[in-house]
Structures are given as structure tokens and as C-alpha cells.
Amino acid sequence: MSSPDTEWYWCLDHEAAEPATTSCPPSHRWGPYPSREAAEHWREHAEQRNDAWDAADEAWDGDE
């Protein structure tokens, strides 16, 4: 696991990337991410992953 000074989180309250040392409670943030940029682009990564999972599900079910 990364050290706290290199972990970043997406804060749901502030809608911003914040370092692990922030005072926001863990239940109000997503992560950790390896960089500020990765935290800022969490949504794009999640959408890409979900699209890939949906395509795999369709292929598995024979829905293509």
C-alpha cells in the first residue's frame, strides 16, 4: 500500500481530489488513488470499466 502522502481520494463533499491527510471522513471519499490526476479522473475510469464489464456480460450471455 502507498504511504499516506502519496495517496489521493475523491471527496464526495467537496467534489475534488484531496490528499490522504485531509480531514474528510473516509465514508465521504473514494479511493485511494495513486495520484491526484487518477483521483480527478475516477469517473472516466469507472465508466470504462463498467463498459468493459457490460460487453463481457453480453458476450457471456450470447446477447451480441
Q: Helix count, per DSSP?
A: 2
Backbone shape: elongated
Largest β-sheet summary: 3 strands, antiparallel
Give the proportion of residues in helices: 25-40%
Low-confidence stretches: none
Indicate the structural class.
Answer: alpha+beta
Strand content: 15-25%
Using only C-alpha atoms, the radius of gyration works out to 15 Å
Strands, count: 3
Order of helices and strands: EEEHH
Mean pLDDT: 89
Strand order of the largest sheet: 2-1-3
Q: Write down the oligomeric state.
A: single chain
Terminal-residue CA separation: 39 Å
Q: How many domains would you count in the coordinates? A: 1
Give structural notes:
The chain is an alpha+beta fold and about 60 residues long. The chain has one domain (about 5-60). About 40% of the residues lie in helices and about 20% in strands. It has two helices and three strands; from the N terminus they run βββαα. It has helices spanning about 35-40, 40-60, and strands spanning about 10, 15-20, 30-35. A three-stranded antiparallel β-sheet has the order 2-1-3. The radius of gyration is 15 Å and the shape is elongated. The protein starts with 7 loop residues before the first strand and ends with a helix. The mean pLDDT is about 90.
Tell me the layout of helices and strands:
Elements (H helix, E strand, L loop, with lengths): L7 E4 L4 E4 L9 E5 L2 H5 L1 H20 L3
Antiparallel strand pairs: 1-2, 1-3
In short:
The chain is α+β, with helices and mostly antiparallel strands and 64 residues long. The model has no long low-confidence stretch (mean pLDDT 89).
